[in-house]
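Lecture notes, continued. The same structure-token format from the folding unit now serves as the input rather than the output. Read the line below as a description of shape only.
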């Protein structure tokens, strides 16, 4: 690290895998720059991480904080993927109880910087008392960040009614259709009955942190970075889209071989890959509509269905219509297991991605030039879909209020995105997006700039 002193940096992501992996990527980069990095999470989440190269192991230290037991939280649950979506508030309660062990760790460490997530709203003020700087790492894009306004807007509850979220905010001074639909919000209200709301957590972290880094870059959304910086009045730095590498995602060769053998039999760009993440909860009726829509499209498909309780709290044979698997055995493959998403998307036979529009999934798809068919599912996914709709894909048409859709709309969206003339510019734009979303040079450039920022803004001493 030249003649600069090595820093001691703590990383503290939220417990969802889609949060942990971007934090892990930044952690590895900072270790490569010569810093000591403490990656702090629960035991099960740390065990889920990929292996790190031997040359980094002495400077990337994993700190396991056991998750406290809270009433209502299933034993062994350490991630949103481990439980039904309506139990997420219990996970946040347990996460908040990590405050004391985390602060005790800080007191006995040499840490001068913490890179943290939205959920630990209590951390910036506690760290400041110890002379430790905090950086908020937004794993979503700057347009989504800007939508919610200033820290004061978030903390004071500017969005009182659901309808307040269904309009493009006045401070978005560039051409954008970013807003929620009522069905996005109704689902969120049912899922998140937290004592401390996500918006309050997020606003408090934004207010009290020293700086913000964003998983995006000005090459993709220049105006949004300008707006977000004005809203915060503090440093906002891109760290690129952090395109993942195959090495980050290990999978049993036998599992991938089954999928690869199936994909190898299909024509180039003919397969729809379907994966709806861990956020999307569909009723049995809508799961069946989706199934019929895939069948009616006529395209071959791989449909990944997670083993977590997905449909109305239940798992089982009624996830798909009776006899569906047998009927589509020549057309589709239903995969009820974890799937190597990046490997599947990279296969030449994949022509489009039917996705819940999670930002990590969108980054993976566009890094490989795959157009999107979007069926949103909670959190910020509705906003991501509005950003991408008619740019690199289509959002499946749904009832604004209840989110219902028909199999015909599913089939129509697939055909438009994969082969029809209307979808030509979407396919071309998605292919062109590889230059930004899959660009490792951009990744290194922006991570280098962030590294310089923390090196140049570290106080010589901290109080312990």
């Amino acid at each position: 690290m030249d003649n600069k002193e090595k820093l001691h940096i703590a990383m503290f992501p939220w417990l969802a895998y889609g949060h942990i992996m971007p934090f892990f990527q930044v952690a590895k980069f900072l270790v490569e720059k010569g810093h000591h990095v403490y990656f702090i999470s629960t035991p099960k989440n740390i065990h889920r991480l990929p292996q790190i190269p031997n040359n980094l192991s002495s400077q990337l230290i994993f700190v396991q904080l056991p998750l406290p037991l809270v009433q209502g939280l299933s034993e062994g649950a350490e991630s949103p993927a481990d439980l039904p979506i309506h139990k997420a508030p219990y996970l946040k309660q347990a996460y908040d109880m990590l405050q004391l062990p985390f602060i005790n760790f800080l007191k006995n460490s040499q840490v001068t910087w913490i890179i943290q997530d939205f959920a630990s709203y209590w951390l910036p003020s506690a760290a400041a008392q110890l002379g430790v700087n905090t950086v908020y790492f937004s794993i979503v894009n700057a347009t989504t960040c800007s939508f919610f306004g200033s820290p004061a807007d978030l903390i004071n509850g500017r969005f009182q009614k659901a309808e307040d979220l269904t309009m493009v905010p006045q401070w978005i001074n560039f051409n954008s259709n970013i807003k929620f639909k009522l069905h996005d919000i109704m689902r969120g209200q049912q899922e998140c009955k937290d004592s401390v709301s996500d918006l309050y957590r997020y606003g408090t972290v934004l207010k009290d942190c020293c700086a913000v880094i964003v998983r995006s870059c000005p090459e993709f959304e220049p105006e949004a970075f300008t707006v977000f910086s004005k809203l915060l009045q503090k440093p906002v730095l891109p760290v690129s889209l952090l395109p993942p590498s195959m090495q980050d995602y290990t999978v049993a060769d036998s599992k991938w071989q089954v999928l690869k053998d199936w994909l190898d039999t299909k024509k180039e760009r003919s397969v729809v890959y379907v994966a709806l993440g861990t956020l999307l909860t569909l009723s049995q009726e809508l799961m069946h509509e989706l199934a019929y829509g895939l069948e009616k499209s006529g395209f071959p498909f791989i449909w990944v269905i997670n083993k977590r309780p997905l449909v109305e709290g239940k798992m089982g044979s009624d996830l798909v219509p009776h006899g569906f698997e047998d009927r589509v055995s020549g057309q589709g493959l239903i995969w009820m297991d974890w799937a190597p998403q990046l490997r599947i998307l990279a296969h030449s036979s994949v022509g489009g991605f039917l996705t819940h529009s999670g930002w990590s999934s969108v980054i993976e798809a566009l890094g490989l030039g795959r157009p999107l068919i979007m069926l949103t599912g909670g959190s910020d996914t509705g906003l991501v879909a509005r950003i991408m709709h008619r740019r690199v894909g289509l959002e499946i048409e749904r009832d604004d209020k209840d989110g219902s859709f028909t199999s015909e709309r599913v089939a129509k969206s697939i055909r438009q995105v994969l082969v029809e003339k209307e979808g030509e510019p979407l396919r071309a734009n998605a292919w062109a997006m590889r230059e930004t979303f899959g660009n490792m040079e951009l990744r290194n450039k922006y991570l280098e700039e962030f590294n310089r920022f923390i090196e140049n803004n570290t106080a010589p001493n901290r109080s312990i």
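Point for the exam: The chain has 20 helices and 13 strands.
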